[in-house]
Amino acid sequence: MEHVENRHPKIAIFASINLKGGRTSVRGILDYAHRHGPWRCMLLEGRDSEQAIQPGLLGFDGIIAHNLSRDEAKAVAAANVPVVLIEPWPQQLARGNPLADAPYVKMNSYDVGALAAEYYLDRGYKSFVYVGETLGLYWSADRRAGFVDTLAKRGFGCIVYDTFSARERRSWAAERPRMMRFLKGLEKPTAIFAAMDNRARLVLDACAEAGISVPEEIAVLGVDNDPIICESSVPTLSSIRTGGFRRGQMAASMLDDLMCSRPIRQRTLSIGPLSVVTRESTGYDAMRDPVLARALKFIHANAAEHRIGVADAVAAAGCSRRYAEVHFRRHLGISIHDAIIQTRLERVKALLEQSNLSIGEISERCSFARESHLAVLFRKATGISMREYRRLRREESDD
């Protein structure tokens, strides 16, 4: 048989891409395949309309798989080729499973919860809630544990909302009245961390129906940073980037080593989250200070598109300039002018990532008088140029 290093390997990828996590991981696998291959990749999603694939009959050189049934795991193991698991469920790693000893790459969901807690603690919150997904899945429990444990280490408790009736698990219409009552009864302000973006969006829906202001009364943070969900929510949803692209790359790298009979340094990799993407649902670090909240709300609504100044923000706050500046320095550690510039720069970043506008057009849209001035501010804030930022973020766009 021709050695796999001397031809194009044929790879099977068993993964669903209907959710953000699966899509990002597959993109990471394909990125590695393009840069180190080419590989002949076949994506198998397991949809009802999809033809059944028998790995042993199609001459695959390697397999990357996520969440296989026991029968599927038997078929993959019987193919007798290198296998790497990505995001394996606990039952896949249990003794007796045909792929229990396969190397794997997974998300560290505990660290996701810990990051969410640190994010809210840094913003001064003292009341916290965890909203789990409805099926009691292991990763939701891990995120809850990371969130609760990290808060406890800092002396704070956490209310956990993650028990559901059979009817509630099937229907949001059945759960929403209870969610609304729950949210109304919370101390305000409260910081809510939801297990995933879909759950966070439902929290926002319940807040809207209950007349609860977000983020002034309740802040909401999700997981996965799915732009379809986060950017279409009202208000837009803050979320955690979990690094799925990187996990896909690492899984492909492990498989490459196995196919080429190279030793792999680690057979199990647990990769933590990347960062929090702040949007409107947590965007005002001022819930404990009405003056600050009014000023920041005005800045976030107007700074990116209008040439507002410090005097405009002070007028919106309804106080003296000195009083407003003292509150900004005390609670945020920055001046009012800095807050305006930061807001404009966040809009610049969003347009660099999400549009094909030229840098000159972005500068004009974000109320910078000169492109050169924006370039200096951007490099000072990020350490890189706008063009480099656009390139890097688009490479990671699905994380």
Task: Describe this structure in a few short sentences.
The protein has helices at residues 20-36, 70-78, 90-93, 109-122, 138-153, 166-170, 172-184, 197-210, 227-230, 244-259, 290-302, 310-317, 321-332, 336-354, 359-365, 371-382, 386-395, and strands at residues 10-14, 40-44, 62-65, 83-86, 104-107, 128-131, 159-161, 190-194, 218-223, 238-241, 268-271, 275-277.
Low-pLDDT segments: none
Sequence of secondary-structure elements: EHEEHEHEHEHEHHEHEHEHEEHHHHHHH
Task: Give the radius of gyration.
Answer: 24 Å
β content, as a range? 5-15%
Report the total helices.
Answer: 17
**Strands, count:** 12
Architecture overview:
There is one protein chain. The chain is α/β, with parallel strands linked by helices. It folds into 3 domains: 4-107 and 244-274, Response regulator (Rossmann fold, 3-Layer(aba) Sandwich); 109-241 and 277-282, Response regulator (Rossmann fold), CATH 3.40.50.2300; 290-395, Arc Repressor Mutant, subunit A (Orthogonal Bundle). Helix content is 48%, strand content 13%. It is built from 17 helices and 12 strands. Strands 2-1-3-4-5-11 form a 6-stranded parallel beta sheet, with helices on one face. Strands 7-6-8-9-10-12 form a 6-stranded mixed beta sheet, sandwiched between helices. The chain is globular, with a radius of gyration of 24 Å. The model has no long low-confidence stretch (mean pLDDT 88).
